[in-house]
Amino acid sequence: MRRVLPSMIALSAFEAAGRLGSFSAAAEELFVTQGAISRQIRGLEEYLGTKLFIRLTRRVELTPAGEMYLREIQQALDHVERATVNFKTRESRHSILTISVLPSVASFWLMSRLDSFTQQNPSIETRILTSIRAVDLQSNEADVAIRVGALPGKIYDARQPRIDLDMVSNWRGVNAEPLFDDVLVPVVSPKLLDPFGPVNEPADLLRLPLIHTASRTHAWRDWLGIYGLHEPPGKERIEYGHFFMAIEAARKGQGVALVPSILLSRFSPEELVTPLRSDTPSAGSYYLLMLADRAREPQCAAFCSWIKEQAAQVQAAGVEA
User: Fold this and answer.
1) Is the dihedral of CA 161, 162, 165, 169 positive or negative?
2) Host domain of residue 42
3) Domains of the chain: total
4) pLDDT band for position 278 (50/70/90)?
5) Is the pLDDT assigned to residue 46 strictly greater than 50?
6) pLDDT at 87 over 80
7) Structural domain ending residue among the three candidates 74, 93, 112
8) Would you say residue 1 lies in a domain?
9) How many other CB atoms sit within 10 Å of the CB of residue 141?
10) Confidence of residue 94 (pLDDT cuts 50, 70, 90)
11) pLDDT-derived band at 89, boundaries 50, 70, 90
């Protein structure tokens, strides 16, 4: 349906004249002649069928109808101005991509690969925010996020290790693109195996100090439970806040850590070994999260395409990516 609107030029002339109380001041502000302002306002009055100004010798005054119309027009123009500023600000951010990512994934997986994204997309500047808390995408905290967890409504096997992390604060309008499974594997320094002996089966791990991670408190209990085992009561507990801390502790020979296989590609066999393989994924996966209505924005679409390629390479290689 076609809108019934007067000329925007006329409305701008009227708003300036009404606000300044002068045709000449309005003309100066809008960089036109006083005669142009007078003609625009006269045309607007004819369009509306009413007088908006009382013309006096050296000034003009709004009529009651003019005062009411000015208030309405100023509110409408304020809205248009805010919408324009917001849009321009958003457009200026289109070359900036803010990525919220888990700290350990950032350290051991994303950062070493991100250079290839930058090379493929030189006009997109990436900014990294690291956090394990649920991301708030509706507040524009980040453009995209990488999180691990269970999808709402999805049913998992009770034997799968739990992931006690919320991925988002609100699922409304959020699209979740699967990246890769979360598979926990034990890792240990080869130097630590010398005094404790070889690890041939899960029960052998109980001879070593177990390194726990605070962000996944049930990891060892659930993983051992797959094999009908449990941590002996009274066993000394070593705990760190994040996986990257647990991995570093294992590398230094403090014990055996249970960590996602996705974090291990950068370590040589001289630093860390995986004495036992595990094929049981956790009750949740790694996802790329973004608002569905932002998926077509150039920087979001480019990153989504790139990271899905990276994830596909991980799955195809079948290695600790």
Assistant:
1) positive
2) 8-93
3) 2
4) confident
5) yes
6) no
7) 93
8) no
9) 14
10) low
11) low
